[in-house]
Design a protein that fits this description.
Largest sheet: 2 strands, antiparallel
Shape: globular
Distance between the termini: 5 Å
Strand order of the largest sheet: 1-2
Strand content: under 5%
Number of domains: 2
Length: 265
């Protein structure tokens, strides 16, 4: 049986605090947005009418729905109450805004983190672990964690690797489309400032899932260094948080790490 390195076992003790920190950061961002919408309701109606209008829903209904999601779900996410069910509406809202209104990298990282919480749930520092009635409700979705955690980690790993490779190759065209179109769904711009060799090396390793935890740690350091110079705060925080998930839980499966670990057993 493969023994996990001592350093990685120690790092796992950091996760409960890190998990709570990430939930608070995500919750704060969405909750502030909801408060601003309520404080300037005409602007909220304008956005719902002209920027990210939903077919089959009036602008007023869309504005009320968006504001309600941003005011209620972040509170549940921060407290760790019904985390999976709170993360899912926020995930849908993030993707809607990313695709139809304001494509930015931090929103993609936020969506990736919300997808993680929708599948995995909150960590030990959450009310749903302490309140028996809530815990019973959460057990109904426990099968999501068992079946989808590893594939989701692999999906996130490959997603980040594609952004790194595109940035490292300085690609302008992707599948016949401008790189600007790809950037709606791939966080290329936030890693484009990194050295090309770093992007290519980390991108290849993440793509095959080799030494995923260590690559994620190297990238966290690179992200911290970039933040000291000229990066966006939320881009860096959300990116580092997503990398921390890979550092804690690995690259999922299928991956080279999993294959080598299976052969070693």
């Amino acid at each position: 049986m493969v023994t996990e390195p001592v350093a990685l076992r120690r790092v796992r003790f950091i996760w409960p605090v890190l998990d709570l920190t990430v939930r608070l950061i995500l919750a704060q961002r969405f909750f502030v947005s909801g408060v601003l919408k309520v404080a300037n309701w005409p602007a909220a109606l304008y956005l719902a009418e002209h920027e990210y209008r939903l077919s089959g829903m009036s602008a007023v209904s869309a504005a009320y729905t968006g504001a309600s999601i941003e005011l209620v779900c972040p509170v549940l996410l921060a407290a760790g109450v019904l985390t999976r069910y709170a993360a899912l509406p926020l995930l849908i809202l993030s993707l809607l805004i990313q695709v139809s209104y304001n494509p930015v990298d931090w929103q993609l990282y936020s969506a990736a983190l919300l997808g993680w919480y929708a599948i995995h749930g909150a960590g030990p520092l959450s009310l749903e672990r302490a309140l028996p009635p809530v815990a019973r409700v959460q057990r109904c979705a426990h099968w999501l964690r068992l079946r989808l955690t590893a594939p989701y980690l692999a999906l996130v790993r490959v997603w980040i690797s594609l952004a790194l490779l595109l940035a490292g190759l300085q690609a302008k065209i992707v599948f016949g489309q401008s790189i600007l179109r790809a950037q709606i769904l791939l966080p290329v711009s936030s890693v484009a400032q990194w050295p090309a060799l770093l992007n290519l090396g980390c991108g290849v390793l993440l793509l095959v899932g080799l030494a995923t935890r260590y690559v994620a740690m190297v990238m966290i350091i690179a992200s911290a260094a970039a933040a000291m110079m000229h990066s966006s705060y939320f881009d860096d925080v959300c990116f580092a948080a997503m990398l921390a998930v890979l550092a804690m839980f690995g690259g999922g499966r299928p991956s080279a790490d999993q294959l080598l670990g299976t052969r070693a057993n």
